[in-house]
């Protein structure tokens, strides 16, 4: 990449199968710049500048808005804006929104997009939130608050839609006033949060969650941190019974701030992550989670060339098979990287 980035965002762009990299933090501070990786050439090119610098934001392409990318929130003092960013031209327009960072974004039907939780404030006054905002396509586009709130405030959680035809979004874990084992559902039909009776087997945050479509119809929750340890555990949420189960198989190491990418073959690739030991900060280990026949077996995969955490991983598909683009993050020395690796599946 042209610049070092961690806690940036990477978004697959449908028009040209490129990957848009936005914001993040480097040695010079928080970035407003964007760049694209072009698989056809294997090169990066600068695209444009966001309205403000951002990290810990979200970035999602919206087909309903001619392929514009909604870049929302982030940590640069208090960011009260979202950008509608054209990934082909670099042009942007700005929408005002309630400030939040370290939140999640989930694309819903209609189509709309949901922002959940995160942090609000600055310095010692920063606080986790239990609120949600819906982005509505209209003239002009705008954000609307969900009428009720989650039971727990949370940031660094996950929010996963339970399938393209489902009305439910599963919100798991995170950190509020403490590490959380609670979960909630957001119901699109009622536009309400609903507490989930089932709890995680452990408190956790900085984990990943990947929805596995039918016939599996489950969410795979991997790793994270519980306030004391880096977790190597795999937890499965059943979208029918609305229950959590810890599977027997574990990852090759505990990790947080890693990535989990659902591959075309139904397996899940786990890459890198933070694991502080006496000799290192970042792990270069990877695992493939085999989900065949509703079994969840963790298989060690080839290592990254460089250990990294707070990176991104984006699936690229072609006639030659799947490739995962792994970009940026921090390494063992906690130095921010501008390097990327291609992981051939």
Q: Termini, distance in Å?
A: 22 Å
The averaged pLDDT comes out at 93
Q: How many H/I helices?
A: 0
Structural class: mainly beta
Strand proportion, as a percent range, falls in: 35-45%
- Low-confidence stretches are none
In one word, what is the shape? Answer: globular
* Largest beta-sheet details: 4 strands, antiparallel
Strand order of the largest sheet: 1-2-5-6
Number of beta strands: 31
Give the helix proportion (percent range). under 10%
Q: Any idea what the radius of gyration is?
A: 19 Å
Keywords: Kelch repeat, Membrane, Transmembrane, Transmembrane helix
Transmembrane segments: 107-126
Pfam families: Kelch_KLHDC2_KLHL20_DRC7
InterPro entries: Kelch-typ_b-propeller, Kelch_1
């Amino acid at each position: 990449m042209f610049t070092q980035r961690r806690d940036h965002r990477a978004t697959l762009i449908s028009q040209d199968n490129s990957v848009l990299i936005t914001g993040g933090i480097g040695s010079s501070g928080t970035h407003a710049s964007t760049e694209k990786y072009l698989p056809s050439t294997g090169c990066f090119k600068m695209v444009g500048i966001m309205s403000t610098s951002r990290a810990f934001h979200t970035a999602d392409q919206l087909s309903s808005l001619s392929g514009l990318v909604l870049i929302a929130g982030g940590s640069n003092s208090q960011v009260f804006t979202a950008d509608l960013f054209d990934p082909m031209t670099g042009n942007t327009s700005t929408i005002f929104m309630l400030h939040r960072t370290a939140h999640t974004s989930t694309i819903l039907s209609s189509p709309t997009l949901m922002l959940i939780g995160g942090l609000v404030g600055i310095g010692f006054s920063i606080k986790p939130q239990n609120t949600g905002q819906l982005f509505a396509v209209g003239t002009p586009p705008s954000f609307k608050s969900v009428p009720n709130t989650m039971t727990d405030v949370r940031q660094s959680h996950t929010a996963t839609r339970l399938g393209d035809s489902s009305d439910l979004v599963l919100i798991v874990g995170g950190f509020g006033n403490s590490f959380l084992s609670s979960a909630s559902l957001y119901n699109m039909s009622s536009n309400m949060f609903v507490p989930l009776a089932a709890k995680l087997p452990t408190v956790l945050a900085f984990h990943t969650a990947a929805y596995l479509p039918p016939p599996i119809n489950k969410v795979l929750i991997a790793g994270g941190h519980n306030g004391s340890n880096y977790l190597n555990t795999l937890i499965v949420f059943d979208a029918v019974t609305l229950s959590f189960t810890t599977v027997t198989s574990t990852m090759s190491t505990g990790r947080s701030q890693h990535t989990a990418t659902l591959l075309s073959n139904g397996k899940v690739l786990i890459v890198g992550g933070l694991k502080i030991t006496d000799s290192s900060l970042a792990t270069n280990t990877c695992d493939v989670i085999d989900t065949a026949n509703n079994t969840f077996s963790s298989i060690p995969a080839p290592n990254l060339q460089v250990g990294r955490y707070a990176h991104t991983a984006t699936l690229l598909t072609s006639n030659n098979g799947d490739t995962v683009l792994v970009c940026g993050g921090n390494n063992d020395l906690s130095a921010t990287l501008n390097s990327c690796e291609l992981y051939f599946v």
